[in-house]
Design brief:
mainly beta, 1 helix
Length: 128
């Protein structure tokens, strides 16, 4: 089986289909001949530039509807979660401009452009 993403004129993924073929070109040819459009192969096992099963990663991330295909870095890219985050061209993922601490729970503050620690408050129960 091979997975293919159809992109529109703005390089936005509009659908992802699976072909029943072990030969990628055969599946691609069928899609183009029967459905038209622009199709790009994607790998279900690829995320962040890594292949989960040790294979060769394909286009940095598995495509999904709404993602953008960037032909310059040959990657499917999701929307940036925050305006201040930057694209890592090696992984096709968005990164905060400041690294997060490894321990504890943190959430990003776009206002301060920093990570804020989430403090868990212990709730005490009183007898009724």
């Amino acid at each position: 089986m091979a997975h293919f993403a159809e992109i529109n004129n703005e390089s936005i993924v509009i659908r992802v289909l699976v072909t029943d073929s072990s030969m990628p070109n055969e599946g691609l040819d069928w899609l183009v001949q029967n459905l038209g459009g622009t199709w790009i192969q994607t790998s279900y096992n690829t995320f962040g530039g890594q292949h989960a099963l040790g294979g060769i990663p394909l286009r940095k991330n598995y495509a999904s509807v709404g993602m953008t295909y960037d032909s310059k870095i040959d990657a499917f890219i999701g929307d940036s979660p925050y305006l201040s985050w930057v694209l890592d061209k090696e992984t096709g993922l968005w990164k905060a401009p400041v690294d997060k601490a490894l321990e504890g729970s943190w959430e990003w503050s776009e206002d301060s452009e920093s990570w804020l620690e989430i403090i868990q408050v212990e709730q005490k129960r009183f007898p009724e």
